[in-house]
Amino acid sequence: TDVSSSLDHIPLETSISLYSRFTALPFCSFMFQTLDTPKRIYSSEDVRPFMTKNNWSMQKMWCSGDSRKHNVIVARGPSALTDDQMRLSVLCTVTSSVVAAFLLLGVLVWLEAGLGVYIIVTVTAAFCCIIPIVRNGVEMYQMYQGVSDVDMDQDDGINLLQVWSTARISEPKPWYCYFRIAIELVFFFLWPFISQLAHRNYPVAVVFLLLGSFTFLWRYFDTSIN
Fold it and tell me: Is the pTM here over 0.90, yes or no?
C-alpha cells in the first residue's frame, strides 16, 4: 500500500542504508527499480516505547542498537530526560564499547594468538563494533539536543517528541523476486530434503520438512516484509 501521504513532511535528518545505496547503483537497475515516491515500511517496532527520565537506564541505552531510532524520546515537560542522563548514556556507550574491545584483545593475548590476529581483531572491532556504537551514542545525544533546543510557545506540560520512521526508496523487480524464491526453494529446501530421503534418514527429513515449511510461511507471508 502506498502511504506516501504520511511522508509529505520534511524530516530533520535522513539516513540511507548501505543496502539501499547498493540497489540504487546503475548496474543494479536490471534487478531493482527506484520508486518515484518512498513507501513507508511498518513493523512491530512501530509500537514505540516512551523513554522518559523515570524508565531511563544506561544499560538500555548501550544495548539498544538501532532500536533507539524507534524510541519516543521525551525531551520537554515534567517527564523529559535530563542533560545528565543523556551525557551518562553517551559516556556509558563509549566506555563500555572500549572496555569490551580491550577484554577481547586481552583474551587473544592470553591465548598468544599472534600479532597478525591482534591487528585484524582490533581493526574489525573498531569498524564493526566500537565506531557504530559510539556513533549511536553521539546521534542519540544530538537528537536529544535537536529536540530540546527547539523554541516552542507551548505549556510546559506538553512534551515534544521526536521519532524515526523507515521508508522504502527502491524495490526488486518481479522477475528477481521469483528468481530468488526459486533459488532458495531448490538449494535450501528441496536439495537438502531429497538428500536426506536418498540417505534414508527419514526422521531428519520429516523434521526438516516441518521446519522448512514453517520458515517458508513465516518468511514470505510476513506482513512486515510486504
Answer: no
